[in-house]
Amino acid sequence: QVQLVESGGGLVQAGGSLRLSCAASGSINSISTMGWYRQAPGKQRELVATITSGGITNYADSVKGRFTISRDNAKNTVYLQMNSLKPEDTAVYYCNADTSPRPGLERRYWGQGTQVTISS
Predict the structure, then answer these.
(1) Number of H helices, E strands in the chain
(2) For 100-118, what is each residue's pLDDT tens digit?
């Protein structure tokens, strides 16, 4: 099993920056892809960014060029650097880890979420 703890959320003015962190513990050697998702008021949860254990990244179109996901495997931590923040970025952000402890077994783990609020 994997436990995920997010930190770094808060209130930021439009145009500002924020860095989210997610620390993983437990069976961290089984983690393949990690990512960030968000859920805004009145909207479905959406993928923001993902990064594989090898460092391959992808991003939602809405955050490309503004957000950067990174991963420190030694610290078992994934980060989301958010720049040029917009009010529409306001959401609860959730850290995700996908694992495959053995062939044919896939599991997804989620953090508790951290609130990001962008004021105009």
Answers:
(1) 0, 11
(2) 888 888 999 999 999 999 9
For residues 34 and 96, the answer to whether their CB atoms sit within 8 Å is yes
Token pair in block for residue 102? 């053995």
Residue 30 DSSP class? G
Q: Quote the CA–CA distance of 15 and 41 in Å, as a whole number.
A: 20
DSSP reduced 3-state for 89:
helix
* CA angle 92–78–29, rounded 5-degree value: 120
Look at residues 49, 91, 17, 28 and name the one whose alpha carbon lies nearest to residue 5.
Answer: 28
In angstroms, the CA 38 to CA 27 distance is 24
Residue-wise pLDDT tens digits, 32-55: 999 999 999 899 999 999 999 889
Amino acid present at 105:
L
**Phi (first) and psi of residue 88, to 5 degrees:** -70, -5
